[in-house]
Design goal:
Strand content: 15-25%
Largest sheet: 6 strands, mixed
Order of helices and strands: HHEEHEEEHHHHHEHEEHEEHHEEHE
Radius of gyration: 52 Å
Strand order of the largest sheet: 7-9-10-12-11-13
Distance between the termini: 59 Å
Structural class: alpha+beta
Number of strands: 13
């Protein structure tokens, strides 16, 4: 496309230059010729008054000399009244041409060696016709023509080069977006779902790039939703499974109780397998941020989930506390997502701490962020880095790490993060930071808001 545009522009510009430059060059040549012969006519006219008054040789020679053309002017007087014919100056024209002008009585030009001559008839007082011959050299006829043609050729060449350069730039501006669009389509077809095309260039290609990026985003979102849905739904089964496992543990001895506990354990293993399979197939794409219109009341969701877990806490003799949920606390995440994140963290408390271990959930509403703290009085996490690694996908036996991943992705969708530290209860404290203005929190700001030093890692041990 680029070279085709350049060739078309080159052909069109060349034709335009030729169409204008050639006639203009011919006009310039004709103007130079007309100028040269006009000067010759003026020189001949300067001698005519003297010829009408006198035919004396000496006087005419002075007139010719005063005209400044003594080397290029000749005067031919016919014989009359007993006077012989008189020729002043150098004759270049043929005798027959001079006689023809004298006979016809009108000016004429004739070609001679080295140029042309103007033959101008002048009527004398005796009634005869004298002929004034003015020599016009070829150099005078073509004076300035070569320079004018060179200028026209330079201007034409500059126009052609300029038009080609402009066409090439326009071609690049058109071709590069098209090439990027083709490259992006190939990359997307090869499975590189992060491939996007810059939305620039001509209007049509820019609209095509916008449509391509929108399509790629939808493809990524559909694939991510499909895999996250499989993993998310499977992980949410962990909450009722935890309840079943704890209840099965209290059934006592007996074949039925053992079969129930074995079935629950088998079901947990199957759910873990489903979660790992879904996560291994997950494309490397970033989680879509929550829409500006999405949001929920964090305080209401915390109260609701604590009411659910409080029944199991009473069965196991756990003391629990919730704070900061008296007033509405809006955060920019969906209600179901926040509930899933809380269930993941509280499920880990029940699963990985002994019966009777206390836990608490605190909600802190700041000016630009909301912090949800989930604390327990267990033994804590000995290796937070490993917990974070499992959260990023390297799950180990008995833990898929998806609980942390759900919480982390939810917090990062608002510009926040998840950190682990030691709680005042003596165990683990998970801090979920939901940013309200979309900016990630600075490390220094986090320390100023808290008296306990946080350790940056994940949960789901």
């Amino acid at each position: 496309m680029r070279w085709a545009l350049v060739r078309v522009c080159l052909a069109v510009t060349t034709m335009v230059v030729v169409a204008f430059a050639v006639p203009l060059g011919l006009v310039v040549r004709e103007m130079a010729r007309d100028r040269a012969f006009s000067n010759a006519e003026r020189e001949a006219a300067a001698v005519a008054p003297a010829l009408s008054i006198t035919t004396d040789r000496d006087k005419l020679e002075r007139v010719v000399a005063s005209a400044g053309a003594d080397s290029g002017m000749a005067v031919h007087l016919p014989a009359a009244d007993g006077r012989a014919a008189l020729d002043l100056g150098r004759q270049r024209a043929a005798d027959r041409d001079i006689e023809a002008v004298r006979r016809m009585g009108r000016a004429s030009t004739t070609t001679v060696s080295g140029g042309s001559t103007l033959l101008q008839p002048v009527a004398l007082g005796s009634g005869t016709i004298a002929v004034v011959e003015v020599y016009v050299p070829e150099s005078e006829v073509t004076h300035g023509v070569g320079t004018a043609w060179a200028v026209l050729a330079g201007v034409g060449l500059a126009l052609i080069v300029g038009s080609v350069a402009v066409a090439d730039r326009l071609g690049v501006r058109m071709v590069r977006p098209a090439q990027r669009l083709v490259r992006g389509a190939h990359e997307l077809g090869e499975g590189r779902l992060g491939s996007r095309v810059p939305e620039d260039g001509p209007t049509e290609l820019r609209l095509a790039a916008v449509a391509f990026n929108s399509m790629a985003d939808q493809v990524v979102q559909l694939l991510a939703n499909e895999r996250e849905l499989a993993a998310d739904l499977s992980h949410r089964l962990r909450t009722p499974l935890t309840v079943l496992r704890l209840n099965a543990a209290s059934l006592g001895a007996g074949p039925a109780a053992e079969q129930t506990r074995a079935a629950v354990a088998q079901l947990e293993r199957e759910v873990d397998t489903i979660i790992r399979t879904a996560r291994e197939a997950k494309p490397q794409t970033a989680m879509a941020t929550a829409g500006t219109g999405a949001g929920c009341d964090a305080a209401a969701v915390v109260r609701e989930r604590m009411e659910f877990w409080s029944a199991l806490a009473e069965d196991e003799g756990r003391t629990w506390r919730v704070a900061g949920v008296d007033a509405p606390v809006r955060i920019p995440v969906a209600r179901a997502d926040l509930a899933a994140a809380l269930d993941a963290l509280l499920g880990n408390v029940f699963r990985h701490t002994a019966e009777g271990t206390a836990f608490a959930v605190d909600v802190h509403n700041a000016e630009d962020a909301v912090i949800v703290l989930v604390s327990d009085a267990g033994s804590g996490i000995s290796d937070p880095e490993s917990a974070m690694a499992r959260g990023r996908g390297s799950g180990s036996a008995g833990s898929t790490g998806l609980g942390l991943d759900i919480v982390r992705r939810l917090a990062e969708s608002t510009g926040g993060d998840v950190r682990i530290g030691s709680s005042v209860l003596g165990g683990t404290e998970v801090r979920i930071w939901f940013q309200l203005d979309g900016r990630r929190p600075a490390r220094g700001r986090v320390h100023r808001r808290r008296t306990r030093k946080p350790v940056t890692t994940g949960l789901d041990h």
